[in-house]
Amino acid sequence: MKYIRYQKDDKIHIGVINPGNTTITPLEYDTIFDAIENESDVKAKIESLHDYDIVKLSDVKILPVCTPSKVVCVGLNY
């Protein structure tokens, strides 16, 4: 499964990219990590979807997988 974090209508969502890489199945989780922990529920939702639940990949803005709380760098030239 390919998980995605995306923005649509000024809201951030989590979803799964469907086969063919042109549509997204929206999920009701706060983070991708929550969706991964509940993978069996995600698979059940994908199987029970209707066409109106699907979002086109071209209609959304793709976001990074997560938003880190800090960035740590290591330098070798000091």
Radius of gyration: 15 Å
Give the neighbour order of strands across the main sheet. 4-3-2-1-5
Distance between the termini: 43 Å
Number of strands: 5
How is the main sheet built? 5 strands, antiparallel
Number of helices: 2
Shape designation: elongated
Poorly predicted regions are: none
- What is the helical fraction, as a range of percent? 10-25%
Oligomer type: single chain
- SS-based structural class? alpha+beta
pLDDT averaged over residues: 85
- Measured by DSSP, the beta-strand proportion falls in 25-35%
The sequence of SSEs as H and E is: EEEHHEE
Structure write-up:
- The protein is α+β, with helices and mostly antiparallel strands.
- Helices cover 19% and strands 31% of the residues.
- It is built from two helices and five strands.
- It has a five-stranded antiparallel beta sheet, covered by helices on one side.
- The longest helix has 9 residues, at 39-47.
- The protein is elongated.
Short description:
The chain has two helices and five strands.
Keywords:
2 helices, 78 residues, single chain, alpha+beta, five-stranded antiparallel sheet
Ordered list of secondary-structure elements with their pairings:
Elements: E1 2-8, E2 11-17, E3 23-27, H1 32-37, H2 39-47, E4 55-56, E5 61-63
